[in-house]
Write a structure and sequence with these properties.
Elements: H1 5-23, H2 29-36, H3 40-47, H4 55-65, H5 69-73, H6 99-123, H7 131-145, H8 147-156, H9 165-190
């Protein structure tokens, strides 16, 4: 007798939904429920995998979370649904190296942009409070798509030559963590 798929599908959906909600700046379910225009208890039943949302509500979730229905439902582009451990093999390009890699990539991007911003602010302060966040996001995406080439560009950045010795050592350690994670991820992807 085959295992019933519906509970597993619902459980995987619930996990993805919660993860995406938190990643998109909704730390509490009630805030996301409000943005959907529904009651908190109704929404939390989706995250507990008790019920499934309607097609209309799924559409609104995708719209607010800025994800495709495929991402929310666990489908890779042009692939079959993905459940459980198979998910990592079909992860989106930004997640293809795993969570640890992404965390170290974001840390490296944040540190690089923060250091650049300090040097630049001495010359000309920015009026845009989100400029550094946007730059961090762009650098993070570059690190995800071309890890080693982007590290080479970061290391060659003239703005970072002005860091003090202690800060350079800390920065070098983050780069080392990142390149180690990227190397491990590349080996795992090749199956070596």
């Amino acid at each position: 007798m085959t295992k019933a798929l519906a509970p597993e599908v619902r459980a995987q959906f619930a996990q993805r939904l919660k993860k995406l909600r938190v990643q998109n700046g909704y730390p509490r379910a009630r805030y996301f429920a409000r943005s959907l225009g529904i009651e908190e208890n109704r929404y939390t039943r989706y995250e507990r995998a008790e019920v499934e949302p309607s097609l209309t509500l799924l559409h609104k979730m995708c719209e607010i979370l800025k994800v495709s229905p495929n991402e929310l439902m666990g489908f890779a582009a042009g692939a079959s649904p993905v459940f459980g451990e198979e998910l990592s093999q079909y992860a989106e390009p930004g997640e293809r190296f795993g969570k640890d890699f992404a965390l170290v990539a974001w840390k490296l991007a944040s540190e690089a942009i923060s250091s650049r911003a300090k040097v630049r602010s001495r010359a000309k302060p920015s009026d845009d409070p989100l400029a550094a966040t946007r730059e961090t996001g762009k650098l993070f995406q570059q690190l995800q798509s071309d890890p080693f080439g982007t590290v080479a560009l970061i290391v060659a950045d003239e703005n970072l030559t002005h860091l003090d010795a202690k800060r350079k050592a800390e920065f070098a350690e983050i780069i080392s963590q990142f390149t180690s994670a990227a190397t491990r991820a590349a080996h795992e992807a090749r199956g070596s």
